[in-house]
Amino acid sequence: MSCCGQASLALAAAPAGAEAGPSREEILLASHRIGEGLWQTDLSVPAVHCGACMRAIESTLGRLEGVEGARVNLSTRRVSVRWREPANPCAFIPTLASIGYPAHLDDPAADERDETLARLVRALAVAGFGAMNIMLMSVAVWAGAEAGTRDLFHLISAAIALPTIGYSGRIFFSSAWNALRHRRTNMDVPISIGILIAFGMSLYDTLNSGAHAYFDAAVSLIFFLLVGRTLDHVMRERARTAVKGLARFAARGAHVVHPDGRQEYLPLAEIEPGMTLMVAAGERIPVDGEILSGRSDIDCSLVNGESLPREVGPGATVEAGTLNLTGPVTMRARAAAKDSFLAEMVRLMEAAESGRSRYRRLADRAASLYAPVVHTAAFVTFVGWMLAGGGWHESLSIAVAVLIITCPCALALAVPMVQVVAARRLFEVGIMVKDGGALERITEVDTVVFDKTGTLTLGTLVLTNGDDIPPADLAVAAGICAHSRHPHSRAIVAAAQDRVRLAPVFDEVREHPGLGLEAKLGGDVYRLGRAAWALRDAGGITGTVLSCNGRLVARFAFADRLRPGARQAVQTLKDEGLRIVLLSGDRSDEVQRLAGALGIDEYAGDLVPGDKVARLATLAAEGRKVLMVGDGLNDAPALAAAHASMAPSTAADIGRNAADFVFLREGLEAVPAVLRLSRAAHALTRQNLALALIYNAIAMPFAVLGYVTPLVAAIAMSSSSIIVVANALRLGRTEGGAREQGGLAAARLSEAHA
Amino acid sequence: MSDFFYLIPLSLGLGCIGLAVFLWSLRGGQYEDLDGAAERVITDEDVPILPQRHSASRQG
Q: Coiled coil: which residue ranges (chain B) (predicted)?
């Protein structure tokens, strides 16, 4: 399995070609049959962003043989392709890549329809219908309908309100009931009590020809709150699907060689210890095991943070999740997938999460203070009016008015609205927020812990002495390297991209795993790789060299590249008085060098995943609130253990799922940006809570004294909600810089693929 | 005024039809891709819903 077949490889196409697409078996595993020989394959295409993209993708895929149709979903940036047998599903991804849309297989599990959203929208529709119609009735009543008409209108309102509250209110009632059963309170408890008492009291008044009914208040309260809740859900779900749509790093299955020589592609769950597996170059190692035959280089950067690939041969052990770079190997599985390195990380993560003190959301903390005050006030009002001789009916009516007017409509919107706006602003600059609580937690952070490989650095090597190498030699090297996916080769190709127009075409190129590449051109033999292998007389020269017939032509030096903006990000965080710590699984001298370059005083290398969690536990014991920024599999437990966590989009799958924030751009400016925006959001949240409290403090005395009618309640409630929402929308404006950056970056993105 | 009370069940009935249509379109998946729908309305080709009438008009 070498690339000798295609002797001429255009240089520009090389980086894309070096990334092997999934095998046919893997695609079939991720597709589902929709009857009659028809299959559906879902692909994630992150670069889709407009109608023209949709047309290009749909028409290009539609022209492929056997494809019945392709449909792009622009909201989730996915395309589902329907095809039947003669079609070649392996062609989909290269076809998309050739028209400028890199794609990858999407998990069928990620395609489940969002039931919660559907339930929320249905409840919202019913509540909106109810609120509108009851309001129409109420306007007639407020306008001064005569007693008979008023009673009729109240009765019709009750008839609409009962099913509406029953259907749309369930979301609040079930959540409140859940909280009460666990002896906690949340925002939904006072809401539910307010709605139920208001409805019961109004129903009693309606049946006894009372003058006031609060059906409109009860139903529009539900409507307003559902609006906030639905927006919140949409925002989080959008972030979640964006993260789910990122390329998957773990293998879905593996080629198993049975003892009778038969080969079969089995899903990961069915691989058992002792099975013989074949792993082609460019595939991830599916489970822990040892190499039986073949030589290759293994990229462990995502697993343990080592930046240089490791050379393996027969007898070497390999961990699940590492990438096989240069040669095909046969390996024996030592553990099932559920017992592999990855699974050990999941266990560590669960342990870390259970140890993390449970954070209580700001809104819930406010509610636990607020609800008793409101309920006491209503109760005292009732008792007071009873003592003053108001009679139980009048006393109860006024107590209900107090409950309605103080019902935390504004309070319940105060926090989610700000978080929805904040999440939106972050989304615009390519940062996904997994849940609103993360925005609150990150404002408490006083220590930032970074991982090295893949976080502070990009995890990809670059050629550092490219300018010292004559262009002709670089062209030869690039021509050879286009045939390999070893990090060194890719670094040379990338360096040559700007400086070399035309690379020579070789008669034959062969890769020797662990050693380098050998190319033949006419009578000359070029070797690019280890000095000891490439040179006839190495004589003290080490590292990577290019030789012609055993004579030295050029030497190459490589280094891991810093993530753009890393230095500024670290400096900004330091200036803000945050403690910066660097924890890495890479060699200590590498870590020390990078820490020195970035001005980080606290660092540690050679850490195993358990050590990182232990370090975080030590910091937590000192009373530190830690923000963990990491990407590797080995960081996942630490991401779960930290007070708040961030991961780049290139992180391992489980790390991305464990992190609170995922940033899609390369630059590390995302870290200070998130901190800045969350702090602004936090300030606005507190403002909103204060606004809601002031409003309640003003309205409450009037309610207690019995001056509040349903009309006043309706006006007060809506106006306070509108004020809170309008205040939340200010968030983008105070943070004008971030928004502008978002626009610029979006423009750059669209330029890049236009 | 009471002569116009028949308008109340009428308006409620219309409202109910609107609600039912919304829930039906929700179930049919018309809200799954709002961004895409916004773009498709511009780029999609106009395909006649009733092709036979198209041909009939050409004959006439």
A: none
Q: Which residues of B touch A126 (CB under 8 A)?
A: 19
Q: What is the pLDDT of residues A513-524, one digit of tens each?
A: 778 888 888 888
CB pair distance less than 8 Å for A55 and B22: no
pTM here is 0.75
Q: Which two tokens stand for residue A551?
A: 């004579």
CATH of A465-556, one of 3.40.1110.10, 3.40.50.300, 3.20.20.10, 3.40.50.720: 3.40.1110.10
User: Is residue A695 exposed (0-12), middle (13-18) or buried (19+ Cβ within 10 Å)?
Assistant: buried
Q: Is A74 on the interface with B (CB under 8 A)?
A: yes
Domain boundaries, chain B: 7-31
Taking residue A747's Cβ as centre, other Cβ atoms within 10 Å add up to: 10
Determine which of A45, A49, A59, A122 to mutate to test the interface with B (most B C-beta atoms within 10 Å).
A122
| Closest in A54, A73, A125 to B23, CB measured | A125
CB contact under 8 A, A125 and B2: no
Whether residues A75 and B36 touch (CB distance < 8 A) is answered with yes
- Which element (helix H / strand E) includes A717? helix A710-729
Tell me which residue has tokens 């979301």: A171
| pLDDT at residue A107, rounded to an integer | 65
Give percent of chain A above pLDDT 90: 9
Residue A13 sits at φ, ψ, to 5 deg, of -80, -10
Enumerate residues 6+ apart whose C-beta is below 8 A from A695: A410, A716, A720, A723
Length of chain A: 754
The span from the CA of A198 to the CA of A161, in Å, is 11
- Its CATH architecture, for the domain A436-459+562-659, is 3-Layer(aba) Sandwich (3.40)
Contact B36 A118 (CB under 8 A): no
Q: Are A51 and B1 within 8 A, CB to CB? A: no
Calpha distance A179→A173 (Å, rounded): 10
Q: Which tokens sit at A373?
A: 């005050």
Distance, in Å, from the CA atom of A220 to the CA atom of A126, rounded to the nearest integer, reads 11
Q: Which of A75, A132, A156 sits opposite B8 (nearest CB)?
A: A156
Using alpha carbons, select from A246, A249, A247 the residue that is nearest to residue A303. Answer: A249
Chain A nearest-CA distance from B56, in A, is 30
User: CB distance from B49 to chain A under 8 Å?
Assistant: no
Residues of B in contact with A54 (CB under 8 A): 36, 39-40, 43
Phi, psi for A524 (deg, rounded to 5): -90, 145
CA distance A174 to A94: 49
Q: What is the mean pLDDT of residues A727-741?
A: 61
Active site includes A232? no
* A599: alpha, beta or left? (left if phi > 0; alpha if psi -120 to 50): left
Note the pLDDT of residue A110.
47
In a mutagenesis test of the B interface, which of A49, A53, A55, A59 is the best target, namely the one with the most B β-carbons within 10 Å? Answer: A55
Q: Convert the pLDDT of each residue in A438-459 to its tens digit.
A: 888 888 889 999 988 888 888 7
Name the residue of chain A whose CA is nearest to B38's CA: A51
Closest CB to A73 among B19, B26, B32: B32
pLDDT in tens, A72-97: 888 778 888 888 877 788 888 888 88
DSSP label at residue A571: H
Cβ <8 Å between B36 and A126: no
Q: How far is CA A486 from CA A105, A306, A444, in A?
A: 23, 15, 42
Q: Is A121 on the interface with B (CB under 8 A)?
A: yes
Could you report the predicted ipTM of this complex, rounded to two decimals?
Answer: 0.77
**What is the CATH architecture assignment of A253-285+288-334?**
Distorted Sandwich (2.70)
Confidence band (pLDDT; 50, 70, 90) for A412?
Answer: confident
Asked if A55 reaches chain B (Cβ–Cβ under 8 Å), the answer is yes
Average pLDDT, chain A: 81
